[in-house]
Write a structure and sequence with these properties.
This protein is mainly alpha-helical and 110 residues long. The chain has 5 helices and no strands. Helix 1 runs parallel beside helix 4 and helix 2 packs antiparallel against helix 3.
Length: 110
């Protein structure tokens, strides 16, 4: 319970500091990856040792604490990769459903 609360506090602080939106997106992506890793039984506990989202988010906040510091290109790359993965997670079930409906209609026949 403490980790998600700390994540929210870091995001609120990022909003207060007016951190660029792409950096906030990266912070949210870090938190989502952390949540996904933590949701896997046994592996999640081991993954928590190696993936420290709140530490990474704090470093992002410290890096952008100075006004006028532009986001790094790695921030954009991370956000675009996360958006692509999310797009695939949405698109694959839709295409599978359409394919199955087409097979079913073909099997049933006119």
């Amino acid at each position: 319970l403490a980790s998600p609360m700390y994540t929210v506090l870091l995001l609120v602080q990022g909003l207060r500091q007016r951190v660029p939106k792409v950096v906030l997106g990266r912070m949210v992506g870090n938190a989502l990856v952390d949540a996904l890793i933590g949701a896997i039984p046994v592996f999640g506990s081991v993954g928590d040792i190696f993936w420290r989202a709140n530490t990474a988010n704090l470093q992002l906040l410290e890096r952008h604490a100075r006004p006028g510091l532009p986001p790094a290109s790695s921030d954009y790359v991370f956000v675009w990769i996360m958006a692509g993965i999310l797009g695939l997670l949405v698109a694959v079930p839709v295409f599978l459903s359409l394919w199955l409906v087409t097979l079913l209609l073909h099997w049933v026949g006119p």
